[in-house]
Design brief:
Phospholipid/glycerol acyltransferase, acyltransferase, single chain, alpha/beta, transferase, 8 strands, lipid biosynthesis, 39% helix, eight-stranded mixed beta sheet, Glycerol-3-phosphate (1)-acyltransferase
Amino acid sequence: MNGWFPSAPCQPHSCVDEPGRRAAWPRRLLRWGAVAAVLAAGILVPRPRLARALLRAAGVRVVVRGKAPRTGLVVGNHVSWLDVVVFVGWFGCRMLAKTEVRRWPVIGVAARRLRVLFIDRDSLRRLPETVDSVAEALRDGDLIGAFPEGTTWCGRAMGRFRPAVFQAAADSGAPVTPVALEFTVDGRRSSVAAFVGQDTVVASLSRVIAARGVRVEAQLLPPRTGSDRRVLASAAHEDVSRARGYGVGHVVVRAP
């Protein structure tokens, strides 16, 4: 394992909820068709507003609490690939993503057109180069979105925020805005939308489309600034953990 490649204990068979109240088959088919249409449009003309259309097509309601910043680093807890859709569609973030995403069908094409910053998690030697690229983008006034846990969790727990990306904020003097994400079904916290372990995007999307009452709440927390990446990472992690009501015992992964 290297610094970019943490792991979480979450797996689909043990952590992920199955849909409770299921949408009727005609509605599911309509959702699949709508999702396919949005993805096709995204290949031709990727736009942040299409991210919003994608979640509406899948039957997911999004509630944002607070006002998104125009510049700086936005960080949040990582539950699902849907987190990225929220960051792009509702905040207008330019995302930081692993290099594998570049090769994904459909999503990879859209990611390149949306000016995603790719990181090579398997090469620690390229870590300073990645940090410099993010810092430069922040100095240029971009709004960069990242998930510092480095992996997804099921939503019932979260890992420590790893400090590397916070170095870019420290170097550029950019503010860091923590975002607490929570998925619910019929008002109760749920892992039905989680994308963990050996799960696939198709399996995750199938659960979301089959479920009724799926909602994601994104709570923007007060921004933080500083010159110490570890202090920034720890403070942002505590803010998100407190907002989501996680206890200390839920956090089992520590940053090096």
